[in-house]
Design a protein that fits this description.
It is built from 19 helices and two strands. It is an all-alpha fold and 435 residues long. It has one domain. Helix 1 crosses helix 2, helix 1 crosses helix 14 and helix 17 packs antiparallel against helix 19. The longest helix is centred in the first third of the chain and has 29 residues. The protein starts with a helix and ends in a 17-residue tail after the last helix. Keywords: Cell membrane, Membrane, Transmembrane, Transmembrane helix, Transport. InterPro entries: NCS2, UacT-like, Xan_ur_permease. Its main location: membrane. Belongs to the nucleobase:cation symporter-2 (NCS2) (TC 2.A.40) family.
Length: 435
């Protein structure tokens, strides 16, 4: 049955709004943490929105080589926020994009075999990794709540009030609203917080005035990528965790759409995500993953056709070519952003805990895997100089909390669960049969 263009457009807008907050907040957090200028931040937001649309098309467009063909919307992954900030601060922006490009190539190459590697990423590993990522993001949120590191009014009552006011508004909106309004409660909270901040004199619209109405995407806007071992290992780990999460979304959408997901479908889905990350690295954007909030929208609306997602992707690409829209998002004060971050980053931690809920907690081995990996990840993040005296080739694996925690989880899982010696059955000695 043919759908009315207005209905397709309205459903497309709904998908854009559902993912927009998550999509723009990632570049805002990363750009703020790396000290980008207003012009650079505007570019980062705009290009992120545009490449989200491109990434979505790669996934929805089913062909011989890539694209799972399900109504999936892709956006930049929150899993990458803390690692990208750590890489940028330690190695510079160019190393971020070198690592993203290599991780994308890695995903394209191992897509065919990843189904077999999934056994090394059970819930005890992925849950631990996502929990570590969420925990390491919380200090970023707290600094923003106070007004942003280095700001003259850091910790002022006005900043704290704005942050907690925004957080309270989001919580109340989530509690007392339903459906679509509830799904964009973060976005509405950010808008409301910014309006209040405007009347307090904390909003500067100069970036919007300076931004042009149209621009072209520039490959390697922040310079040519550089390739460092630690950042590459970090982003490959992030990519593999994202693939595990995406697999769950593929199966959930396959169930909603009444389509059986086979191994060849998974491979094409993985390749599409790898290609999206390569494009993200080239245009100085981010790695991409499936957005589960859009899966919820498909479930609620009951519309499962790909043309709605193509429409949403086209809208994202158009928005990406209009820097003034991107600049609008950069006027959000750090304290307002910080209030929303607490909810979002807390949700990352909660997602990790939810993954861990599938773990067999009666097993002492699993408890030890979680304890050691989360402890190691948090410890290295809090005391980054812990392994500073080790040789450089070993420090590669220990100087980043997420890498250290992730590798701990993977290795302990192999030790306790993959190489587990089968429980010894009492030897049954057969008595010789009487002749």
């Amino acid at each position: 049955m043919k759908q009315h263009p207005f209905k397709i457009a309205s459903l497309g807008i709904q998908h854009v709004l559902a993912m927009y907050a998550g999509a723009v907040i990632v570049p805002l957090i990363i750009g703020g943490a790396l000290g980008l200028t207003g012009e650079q931040l505007t570019y980062l937001v705009s290009i992120d929105i545009m490449t989200s649309g491109l990434a979505t098309i790669l996934q929805v467009w089913r062909n011989k080589y890539f694209g799972i063909g399900l109504p999936i919307v892709l956006g930049c992954t929150f899993t990458a926020v803390a690692p990208i900030i750590a890489i940028g601060n330690s190695y510079g922006i160019s190393a971020i994009y070198g690592a993203i490009i290599v991780s994308g190539i890695f995903v394209v190459l191992i897509g065919k075999y990843f189904g077999k590697l999934v056994r090394f990423f059970p819930p005890v590993v992925t849950g631990s990794v996502v929990t570590i990522i969420g925990i390491t993001l919380v200090p970023v949120a707290m600094n923003n709540m106070a007004g942003g590191q280095g700001s003259p009014d850091f910790g002022s009552l006005s900043n704290i009030g704005l942050a907690f006011g925004t957080l309270l508004f989001i919580v109340l909106l989530f509690r007392f609203s339903k459906g679509f309004i509830r799904s964009i409660s973060i976005l509405i909270g950010l808008i409301a917080g910014t309006i209040v901040a405007f009347f307090m004199g904390k909003v500067d619209f100069s970036a919007v005035g300076d931004a042009s109405w149209f621009h072209m995407a520039k490959p390697f806007y922040f310079g040519m990528p550089t390739f460092e071992i630690t950042p590459i290992i970090t982003m490959i780990l992030v990519a593999m965790v994202s693939l595990v999460e995406s697999s769950g979304v593929y199966f959930a959408l396959g169930d909603i759409c009444g389509k059986k997901i086979e191994e060849k479908d998974l491979v094409k889905g993985y390749r599409a995500e790898g290609l999206a990350s390569i494009i993200g690295g080239i245009f100085n954007s981010f790695p991409y993953t499936t957005y589960s909030q859009n899966v919820g929208l498909i479930q609620i609306s009951g519309v499962r056709t790909s043309n709605v997602i193509y429409t949403a992707a086209g809208m994202l690409i158009l928005l990406g070519f209009v820097p003034k829209i991107g600049a609008l998002t950069t006027v959000i004060p750090p304290s307002v952003l910080g209030g929303a971050m607490i909810a979002m980053f807390g949700m990352v931690v909660a997602s990790g805990i939810k993954m861990l809920s599938k773990v067999e907690f009666a097993s002492q081995e699993n408890l030890l895997i979680i304890a050691c990996s989360v402890g190691m990840g948090l410890g290295v993040s809090v005391v980054p100089g812990l392994f500073s005296q080790l040789p450089e080739n070993i420090r590669i694996l220990t100087e980043n909390g997420i890498v250290a925690g992730s590798l701990t989880a993977i290795l302990l899982n192999i030790l306790f669960n993959e190489l587990k010696i089968k429980q010894k059955q009492p030897d049954i000695i057969e008595e010789p049969k009487a002749s």
